[in-house]
Specification:
Elements (H helix, E strand, L loop, with lengths): L3 H4 L6 H25 L5 H30 L10 H31 L5 E2 L3 E2 L8 H36 L14
Antiparallel strand pairs: 1-2
Length: 184
């Protein structure tokens, strides 16, 4: 087990922590809203939730870009001592997360554009169409947005399970590296 003294200097920056948790909340919230809204019959409530879902997608895309830029400019803390297979698994999972952080909202934006439903951020700022209106393309893209969202959910679940394993089984302080508070 790492002592707290050993963990000093092994934390992520406050900006990285904030971006991590904002992105986590937006992804979980958007996924849940997406599941719920697709089960509703056509109604004003469903339309409102679709707009919220699109706005969350824009937030996810923006936070993902900010997080990637921050990560490229700031070296993360060193890996904790762990078997090589765990380090490699964590690196592959993080790579998949970053790819899906962009792929899911961009696929949703492309689908919405191809279906002829523009994104008007917060009801006031129209975003440009990602692709032109094309019914055949929309039909092709629609299931891919869902598939990629489920892939993201699966990788997020593995990420959470890995973090919980480190916290409860390994007791190596890994979760404290991404905590708001710096106390044990």
């Amino acid at each position: 087990m790492q002592s707290l003294g050993t963990l000093q200097g092994m934390h992520y920056t406050r900006t990285a922590v904030a971006l991590h948790w904002v992105l986590a909340a937006a992804i979980v919230g958007s996924f849940c809203v997406g599941l719920y809204m697709t089960s509703l019959p056509f109604s004003p409530q469903r339309l409102k939730l679709y707009n919220w879902h699109k706005w969350a997608g824009v937030l996810i895309l923006t936070a993902s870009a900010a997080r990637l830029l921050w990560r490229l400019a700031h070296r993360p803390p060193e890996d904790l001592p762990m078997p090589l297979w765990q380090q490699r698994t964590a690196h592959v999972a993080h790579l998949l997360l970053y790819i899906l952080f962009f792929a899911v909202p961009l696929m949703g934006w492309a689908y919405s554009s191809a279906a002829g439903f523009p994104i008007v951020l917060f009801g006031v700022l129209p975003l440009p169409d990602f692709v032109g209106k094309d019914a055949a393309l929309a039909e092709f893209l629609k299931p891919w947005h869902g598939r990629l969202a489920w892939m993201l959910a699966a990788v997020v679940a593995l990420h959470v399970l890995g973090a919980l394993k480190h916290h409860f089984i390994d007791r190596d302080g890994l979760i404290r590296r991404m905590a708001w508070s710096r106390t044990p």
